[in-house]
Specification:
This protein has about 180 residues and is an alpha+beta fold. About 35% of the residues lie in helices and about 25% in strands. The protein has one domain (about 20-175): Alpha-Beta Plaits (2-Layer Sandwich). The strands form two sheets. Strands 1, 2, 3, 4, 5 and 8 form a six-stranded antiparallel β-sheet that branches. Strands 6-7 form a two-stranded antiparallel ribbon.
């Protein structure tokens, strides 16, 4: 390796280590859901940071309002220099650009981008609650999270993702797509 590269590589490594790890759930049930997940990942890579881990894609019956098509869901892990609020703003902008229109809670949608964890940050603002307050109640979230990080400890509930999955009250089937 040329000597002049070592400084750049060390700087890049230091910058990468100083980035925060963010767990994001992607989901959708309108249009070509698989393609929409890919589009969302590409947009998040440009706007938020590098994707370092990706779960399998899972198919789940709709939660909440059940008279709608099944959802495809996937968890990704990114590294970012953005704050939690900046990350949320980027996620909402991507949803809007992809055609998401917010109507009623749990309605069908082209894409949904939810921040699940931002490192071990605990926050509760009108715009953002971290960790996401429904993680423990949704099998379609816990299953892909368990695939990626079964030993990750929920910073509020003090249980691992695997433990939360085993006691999850949601009984909807979640299957690999």
């Amino acid at each position: 390796m040329p000597a002049e590269w070592s400084g750049h590589i060390n700087a890049a490594r230091t910058n990468f280590l100083n980035m925060d790890k963010v767990y994001i759930l992607l989901g959708g049930n309108q249009g070509n859901s698989a393609k929409n997940l890919e589009r969302a990942k590409a947009a998040l890579t440009k706007a938020v940071g590098e994707i370092i881990r990706i779960s399998s894609v899972y198919q789940t019956a709709a939660w909440g309002i059940t008279d709608q098509p099944d959802f495809l869901n996937q968890v990704i892990v990114l590294k970012t220099k953005l704050s939690p609020t900046e990350t949320l703003q980027k996620c909402l902008a991507i949803e809007h650009k992809m055609g998401r229109v917010r109507t009623i809670k749990n309605a069908p949608r082209i894409i949904d981008i939810d921040i699940l964890f931002f490192e071990k940050v605990i926050m509760n603002t009108p715009e953002l609650v971290l960790p996401h307050p429904q993680i423990q109640n949704r099998r379609f979230v816990l299953t892909p999270l368990n695939e990626l990080s079964p030993a990750f400890i929920h910073p509020v509930l003090k249980k691992t993702i695997h433990q939360l999955l085993t006691i999850c009250p949601d009984k909807l089937a979640v299957k690999k797509n």
